[in-house]
Design a protein that fits this description.
CATH superfamily of one domain: Band 7 domain
Distance between the termini: 179 Å
CATH architecture of one domain: 2-Layer Sandwich
Structural class: alpha+beta
CATH topology of one domain: Tetrahydropterin Synthase, Chain A
Oligomer: single chain
Number of strands: 9
Largest sheet: 4 strands, antiparallel
CATH class of one domain: Alpha Beta
Strand content: 15-25%
Number of helices: 7
Radius of gyration: 55 Å
Shape: rod-shaped
Length: 290
């Protein structure tokens, strides 16, 4: 009984070993190639469960998701021969499994090393055709797009991978370049501040001149209105006086003479030389008051 049970176990183990060496699974996140005695016989296997020839076939699996290549910071020269220290990273994925396997032997570290060299070459070429200002702040998106496009034309055929995106994390300037850029930025800010002050002064002068003009116009209009009102008042007063005095001309003449006497004799120190027979004393000649 024990011998029979042992035989069953041995057969079961052999079946499991045969199944394990004959069946393989490709996940949705994987790409794979099938090798037979080291030669590729199936370059791009879709996800699923498959059979293989035991001891003759070998299946190599690779991650099909987007991977990140974080390259070491490198030093590049701009078109002006200014040195920049650039820290960049790239997003990539495998698109041609057969080419990828032939180029790297299925070793991801080899693929990363070769891709890093090509990314650095692309960065060097792009920074070399741009000025310091364009590289630092002017055309960052355009520069990244050109690098990505240029890399894809080379690494697809040579490595079987696709560069999804290349981004610059940081651009540092050497000490001598940093001081030069700082001085230039400082000069630009001073120039901009001077221009803004000049424009502000010009605007202030315009506002002040307009306020002075409006003040003159308002004062002139007010003076005109006041003179007009005063003239109308004087005219009405003269009309009232004339109407009142016309009712008794003799009283009007007498009232005017009294006013003249009051003004003439207001200061006792004044001396007047007047003909006694003049009309000025007409109301003083008759002591009866006639």
């Amino acid at each position: 009984m024990n011998q029979k049970f042992s035989s069953v176990l041995i057969v079961l183990a052999l079946v499991i070993m045969l199944a394990n060496s004959s069946l393989y699974v490709i996940k949705e996140t994987e790409k794979a190639v099938k090798l037979r005695f080291g030669r590729i016989i199936q370059p791009d296997i879709a996800p699923g469960i498959y059979l293989k020839m035991p001891f003759a076939d070998d299946v190599r699996k690779f991650d099909s998701r987007i991977l990140t290549l974080d390259a070491e910071p490198k030093s590049f020269l701009t078109m002006e021969k200014k040195r920049l220290i650039v820290d960049a990273f790239a997003k990539w994925r495998i698109v041609d499994v057969a080419t990828y396997y032939k180029a790297t032997g299925g070793d991801e570290s080899v693929a990363r090393s070769r891709l890093a060299d090509r990314v650095n070459d692309g960065l060097r070429n792009q920074f070399g055709t741009r000025t310091l200002h364009e590289a630092v702040s002017g055309e960052r998106d355009q520069l990244m797009a050109h690098i990505t496009e240029d890399l894809n034309t080379r690494v697809r055929e040579s490595l079987g991978v696709e560069v999804v995106d290349v981004r610059v994390k940081r651009i540092d300037l050497p000490q001598e370049v940093s001081e030069q850029v700082f001085r230039r930025m400082q000069a630009e800010r001073k120039e901009e501040a001077t221009e803004l002050r000049s424009k502000g002064k010009e605007a202030a002068e315009g506002i002040r001149a307009d306020a002075d003009r409006q003040e003159t116009i308002i004062a002139a209009n007010a003076y005109r209105e006041s003179e007009k009102a005063r003239g109308e008042g004087d005219a009405k007063a003269s009309t009232i006086y004339a109407t009142a005095y016309q009712q008794d001309p003799e009283f009007y003449a007498f009232s005017r003479s009294l006013i003249a006497y009051r003004k003439a004799f207001a200061n006792k120190g004044d001396v007047m030389l007047i003909d006694p027979d003049s009309d000025f004393f007409s109301y003083l000649k008759d002591k009866g008051g006639k």
